[in-house]
Amino acid sequence: MITGIRWLATARLIAQLSNWVITLIVIRLLTPVDYGLQAMVAAIYTLLLLVTQSGFDRAIARAREFGGDSVREIFGFILVTNVLVMLAIWGLAPLAGTYYDEPRVVPVLRVLAAGFVINVFQIMPRALVWRDLDYRSHAIAGLTGTLTGSAVILTMALLGFGVWALIGGMLAVPAAAAIYFQLRTGWLVVPRLAIGRIRPVIRDAYTIGAGFFVWMLAWRLDILIGGQQLNAAELGLYAVAIRLCAIPLSRIVPLANELLYPAYARLQDDDSKMKVYFHKALASLCLLLFPAFFGLAAMSQWLVPLVFGPGWQGAERVMAIVALAMPFRVVLTLCNPLLQATGKARTAFRTGMFAIVFIALCVTVGLHWGATGLALAALAATPVLMVVVAWFTREASGLSLWRLMGSIGPPLAISAVMAIIVYFAGIRLAAELPDGGVIALQLLLGIIVYLALALLFCRDITTSTIDILRTSLGKGGQKKA
């Protein structure tokens, strides 16, 4: 796991920096309409991708015995399933255009459907390297995919391809990762159409996949419902705000889950060790991520006009609200892998069903206020869902609710205090400095204030997090490890 932190963290850091840079460039080349169209088709694509593929890597990783002909049979089953889904999407794409009342969705969705087949060639080797705790191969494959996808998006955007630049990037990521896996591991086998010995893995995969599906559907309801009532430009404001605010969540939290899930699977019969891993991971990630989201909310008033340009007026308010909802999603995202790795995926499915109903209600009410209302719906829903998921995770896995709240509460409180100080400092500085100067001083002030509060009120969590980081970097931590 220490080796995994080094490889995954390094790869994610490089990928994150490149993603930020490319996003900030491309966002000036594309329009809110382009991002709105991409959000519409991506909502459908990612949901179906979860159904057809997401559970298999985890089911294979936690299978006590797997190899030989089982690899060929699983590969054959997934390949046939995804070819059929791709063909179905091609034929049914006009229904999506009718649903959104946007005919441009049809060709975009048909092209993106190729991703169902492309992804098959990375899901199998990823599951196999997970079984071996081969974090190096997993990290480099992910980095290769991200860098390739970013390069494709930038190149196509510069050439004036509009929304097709975003779609090209989405397809390039799994394609590049699959090529690296093949060159590294030589895993590719001749598929076999038989399911006799792999029925338990398939059943486990679809149980896990069902949990992923309901949760992803819950998180996509804002786009799916909002796409019917908002025009592409207004939906694009909200989609970009979600996309940028979710960058730390979508990069760092999956990194932690990629590190922890194989360990959970290995330790699925040792509850005490798993609880230790979970609580340490939760506390450290809350400490690291919460200030990023609260800081983004505090600085959005000056950050959005400077970075996005004049074509994105109104996005700063939406981004500030969305950023405040993100800390609660960190907790939600960390709980489900623990349930899946320990064979309690049905609990993740039940909580996801509740999330669908609750988020749909919030979104329906929020849409009366457009993109800002969608953001307010997210802010209203996520704290409630966090409490519900924490409660059910406690019951299913025997975790201490007091320890859960102890991991979440202090970072949440000091991040909120830091954000208030940074926001009012920005208002004071705005009268004397340009936006760039305000942001620079806000950032410096936020770091100083947060570190001081963390050492004063969260010393144990801070010390533990620093020890983990030092050990993962190999700086005097080998003995502790």
Keywords for this entry:
mainly alpha; 85% helix; disordered C terminus
General description of the model:
The protein has 481 residues and is an all-alpha fold. It has 2 domains: 1-197, no CATH class; 232-476, no CATH class. It has 17 helices and no strands. It has helices spanning 2-29, 32-62, 69-100, 105-112, 115-131, 135-158, 163-185, 199-229, 232-245, 247-266, 271-308, 315-341, 345-366, 370-397, 401-430, 435-457, 459-472. The protein is globular. The model is unreliable at 476-481 (pLDDT under 50).
Overall number of domains: 2
Q: Which consecutive residue ranges, at least 5 long each, have pLDDT under 50?
A: 476-481
How widely separated are the two ends? 10 Å
Taken from the alpha-carbon principal axes, the silhouette is globular
| Average pLDDT taken over every residue | 83
Order of helices and strands: HHHHHHHHHHHHHHHHH
Percent of residues in beta strands: under 5%
The largest β sheet comes out as:
none
As a whole number of angstroms, the C-alpha radius of gyration is 22 Å
Helix/sheet category: mainly alpha
Instruction: Count helical runs.
Output: 17
Topology:
Layout: H1 2-29, H2 32-62, H3 69-100, H4 105-112, H5 115-131, H6 135-158, H7 163-185, H8 199-229, H9 232-245, H10 247-266, H11 271-308, H12 315-341, H13 345-366, H14 370-397, H15 401-430, H16 435-457, H17 459-472
